[in-house]
Design goal:
Blueprint: H1 2-7, E1 15-18, H2 30-39, E2 43-46, H3 55-86
Parallel strand pairs: 1-2
Length: 87
């Protein structure tokens, strides 16, 4: 998470995917994933590529996160342009 905040653009949408939920012996526990998600205030989605669970939901959620961020930038850009025209 530190590297994302250090190297990624500001306000980049982040979605934690806990994959391989179809496997009994997990390398990362559900509680640890949830804790990481809560600690960094990011969304968490459990997935299984093998069983095709939540893969589409993950893509859709990420799309909406990006779209929401993009609209916010567009609104801010329009406001800035309007203010410059008024000056």
């Amino acid at each position: 998470m530190r590297q994302i905040k250090q190297y990624a653009v500001e306000n980049i949408p982040i979605l934690i995917l806990a994959n391989k939920i179809d496997i009994d012996e997990k390398q990362v526990s559900e509680s640890h994933s949830r804790s990481l998600s809560e600690r960094h205030s990011v969304d968490l989605l459990t997935t299984s590529a093998k069983e095709k669970k939540n893969i589409e939901a993950a893509m859709i959620r990420l799309y909406h996160m990006i779209d929401k961020e993009k609209k916010g930038v567009a609104v801010l850009t329009n406001i800035t342009m309007t203010i410059k025209k008024m000056a």
